[in-house]
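Appendix B. Raw example, untouched.
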Amino acid sequence: MSKRDELITKYAADLKDKCGVTADMDLLTKVTIGCGPAIYNKDAATVSGSDEKELATVKNNFLIKKLGLADSADLNKAIDGVMEQYGRSNRNKYRAVVYYLLTVHFGKQEVYS
């Protein structure tokens, strides 16, 4: 099993155990690949739910640039909702899991088709 496959398995387990979501493995794989080499860097692989700069990066680089959403208060609300769903006390919020949840939340799965 490759390192990426191991990470995808870990992300699917996080979705199930911490978020109560059964992952669409095809979509999760595509979202993970879309994260690029960041998934292999310990710091870049996670999202800090309490760091405003980090959350702004998720909003600008992922929701607006990648998913093509218009900037609005709904984006911040969705990010906040995902942080809540993942568990605010959970220290390791994997970027691929956060992006997966946001993709599904906004119904933008076609971006990864």
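End of appendix B.
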